[in-house]
């Protein structure tokens, strides 16, 4: 369709009838069929931040859509644009989040400098283009924080293919990368001899995702490929538990001092391994039995694939990474109240509003559902507090992982039971308590995999996931 219009305009006929399509960006006009990865260092403290270029490399054939070049969802803490410097037109854009974005809010960032290696990936520009990175401010608007003129003919650009030495296992193949959502799974903490296990875990990941809506009904829109990165030793690093290990991608539990938060900072090595296959989303399967993981929008997820809750970890963390979904849980002990000045969060599954017209998923709420929607929060919080106390005691006593799993199982059973029996169970509404706030922030349903360790997404999360699938699948 677009190609026809370009030819038509070239022939100077039918110009007016093509004006609609010409307003869009034509992939072929600006880009070559390759992926450029621009690596940079992101450094700063709690109060200032700086960017500096590392390198620009060839990250393999373009796996993204050639139609959906501009990101209208505008999710994430950061956002980047590729602009045509002559016209100023935005020819590619995507939102994303980063480890830096989390780190800058920690106590450490108030005391010392941090530096993180990051990447933005976009189709290979045919001519010079301008990269502009934006950061979300307090009012949730994007301010420009860095720009860089990308000259594809510069000596700083390395167009050579990488040709990584890793084996690839096709987990799910449904079509051409440019027409599908492409997920890469990277092995971490699996030795060469454990690759059978990794392939089985990769299948487990796919099964967990594809048995959860809306991934289940959109299964055909996905490709999943697993890259086998052999580790020198089995398992991960756990500094808080005095278990030390050096793995191939350097992922570690204990990120920001949290025992069960696993991140990896060796971005270049991780990205190089991922580029073995076409990809847009990344999951790090950790060969570890200790409950833990993490998920950052458009960066990656980590999940312990040997833990009893692996299905939950895969899907919950993927929700963060894929659609920038907020955690819907909160610690009931924190009675922090949001003031009226609080700005509506950008995440599509949480809101500060209780007016049907203003709630993001308001159109899904029935007229007779009260807002905010009562859900027996006090009783739920009482139970949750008891579990928290128990958990802390068990953690202090360094009990076995089996015992922790048992507690999580009991908690899940009680919560499933309780939330399925409340008056508005199954109703879309505005349920108070979400995003680490006991009060002032609302979620769309009583239960969701972003709230408890249940097995399904709420209505707001499902819709957000559909929107992201539509950005990559055709
Ligand atoms: Zn949800």
Give an overview of the whole structure.
- The protein contains 11 helices and 18 strands.
- It is globular.
- The model is unreliable at 1-23 (pLDDT under 50).
- β10 (181-188), α6 (195-210) and β11 (222-228) form a beta-alpha-beta unit.
- By secondary structure, it is an alpha+beta fold.
- The chain has 3 domains: 31-158, Immunoglobulin-like; 167-324, Collagenase (Catalytic Domain), CATH 3.40.390.10; 362-449, no CATH class.
- Zinc ion binds next to α11.
Topology, element by element:
Blueprint lengths: L1 H9 L8 H4 L4 H4 E14 L4 E13 L16 E6 L6 E7 L2 H5 L4 H4 L2 E12 L3 E8 L5 E9 L6 E2 L8 E6 L8 E8 L6 H16 L11 E7 L22 E2 L10 E2 L2 H8 L6 E6 L6 E4 L3 E5 L5 H14 L53 H20 L4 H21 L9 E4 L2 E7 L15 H14 L2
The structure holds zinc ion.
Zinc ion binds next to helix 11.
The end-to-end distance, rounded to whole angstroms, is: 14 Å
Helix content: 25-40%
Order of SSEs: HHHEEEEHHEEEEEEHEEEHEEEHHHEEH
Number of strands: 18
User: Largest sheet, described in full?
Assistant: 6 strands, mixed
Q: Name the hetero compounds present.
A: zinc ion
Key words describing this protein structure:
single chain, about 475 residues, alpha+beta, Immunoglobulin-like, Collagenase (Catalytic Domain), 6-stranded mixed β-sheet, 4-stranded mixed β-sheet, 11 helices, globular, disordered N terminus, binds zinc ion
